[in-house]
Amino acid sequence: MPTELEEYLFDLQGYLVLEKAIASDHISKLNAVLDTYQDMPSDSWRGNVHRVLDNTRSIHIHNVFEMGKPYEQLIDHRAWIPYLERFVGGDDGLFIDESFADLRDSGHASPLHSGAHKRRIRTQYRFHNNEFRCGQINILLALTDVGDGDGPTMIIPGSHKSNLIHPAFRERPESLDEVAGAIKVPLNAGDAVLFVDCAAHGAALRTKAGQRRMLIIRYGPQWANDRYGYVPSDALLSRLTTERRKIIQPVPPKRPPGS
Q1: Which pLDDT tens digit goes with each residue over 63-114?
Q2: 172-209 per-position pLDDT tens digit
Q3: If DSSP codes are grouped into helix, strand and coil, which group holds residue 178?
Q4: 3-class secondary-structure state, position 31
Q5: Which end of the chain is more exposed for a tag (fewer CB within 10 A), N or C?
Q6: Element (H, E) at 99
Q7: What is the pLDDT of residue 253?
């Protein structure tokens, strides 16, 4: 379970950094597997792995758990599952509604998005009667070092509780580098940042050569559904442990009419 201080900081700022969440040898395996999928054409499938239509900022490869055991092990990884169980809250169980690799080269950033002012139930932050009820908690796992010049994630601390829209949403800056109140969250490979999705966030401009690699896994309550309608393959479900299968494909109890 999160410590009392971690709960305080999460409630205050909307995010936590989990240092050394994943061991270096595991990170190496994740990168080695990802290397074999980079040559996929834009908007193409390999098995049940989908490289979506590339945008102007990055490459997104979806359904990463279909890429083998090193990725399957992340589903219920002990580095973050206790936090998710506490912050998503309740006894409903967890569900992953999106999982993808984000690959970004020099000269690209991620613009400001989300924010509590939108009041979306799916991404909401709520705390009542000593229970958290967050609609979506994001895990951003760094597969490479992401420091100054590498395009680190940026967050506006406390924006998960904001009532007013940040003026920058109207100005539409390409990155958060010049957005008032936004801070950089540098990560070493293997570190993860955990944050509630309604916190306003994005990423700084990458100015260094090379590639920024992040895995994004979004967790929510069991009753949610996949954001893009992806369905896990039978092969994946057959390989997963009972605990992991419950997160990837929750099956609610069935109650026949009249029972």
Answers
A1: 999 999 999 999 999 999 999 999 998 677 899 999 999 999 988 888 888 9
A2: 777 788 889 999 999 999 999 999 999 999 999 999 99
A3: coil
A4: helix
A5: C
A6: strand 94-104
A7: 63
81-85, long-range: CB < 8 A, 24+ apart: 82/1, 82/2, 83/2, 83/6, 83/16, 83/18, 83/137, 83/194, 84/137, 84/139, 84/194, 84/219
Whether residue 254 lies inside any domain: the answer is: no
Q: What is the DSSP string of 58-96?
A: -EEEE-GGGG-HHHHTTTT-TTTHHHHHHHH-SSS-EEE
Cα–Cα dist 220/16, whole Å: 17
Start-to-end CA span in the chain (Å): 37
Q: Is residue 259 part of a domain?
A: no
pLDDT for res 176: 84
Closest CA to 179 of 171, 164, 168, 169: 168
**Domain annotation covers residue 188:** yes
Number of structural domains in the chain: 1
Closest by CA position to 223, among listed 99, 139, 136: 136
Q: What is the CATH number of the domain that holds 102?
A: 2.60.120.620
Six-digit token pair at 83?
Answer: 């936090």
Quick check: 175 and 136 in contact, CB under 8 A?
no
Query: Which DSSP helix (H) or strand (E) runs through 168?
Result: helix 168-171
Whether 75 contacts 96, CB under 8 Å: yes
Which range marks the domain in which residue 28 is found? Answer: 4-248
Are 191 and 21 a contacting pair, CB within 8 Å?
A: yes
Contacts of 256 (CB under 8 A, 6+ apart): none
Any domain includes 168: yes
